[in-house]
Amino acid sequence: MDISRRGVLGGLGAVCAVGAVGFAGAAAVTDGEAAGGIGGDGPGPTGGASADGGGGSGPSSAGVDPDAPFVARVTGDDGTDALLFDASDLDRVKGVFSQDGEYLVQVVLSEAGIESFRSRLDEAGATDDPAAFVVSMTLDGTEVRRVELDGETVGALTGSEWGGVLTLPFDEETVARSVYDRLADE
Question: What is the pTM of this model?
């Protein structure tokens, strides 16, 4: 079961987005069809090989270890600091892809994870004033990605068209591989 790149719509400036804007340089989102029929190869694998180092034609895809030490928190100018999602909210992970100088890992939130994600954004106040919030992603307690939210991104993430697929870009391949390796339940 692979994560489709069909419907990938733009980059994110924070953690996830839909449309031609979003989490600028942080993540992208695909439409709801991806969650139902996860398939496709996504962008090209790094080094022309599969993420598992084999000679396969595409990146690896795996279920997520719900106890993996990956956490995304939403923080606000007003002192808000709340969980946005963690590994237990995820269903699948796929990676590592290389695209436009970034190294990408795709994750799919479970149905319950999508609802929790949206509720947590709202409860934190990020749906009312997105520009006052950032998303910080950590692995083993070390921040690996930090991005600012905007109104269009938050609107896309809370809209009915978003199917819970996030593409998380990283500047360094080693960081992307660490995120994939720690999330994958292999």
Answer: 0.73
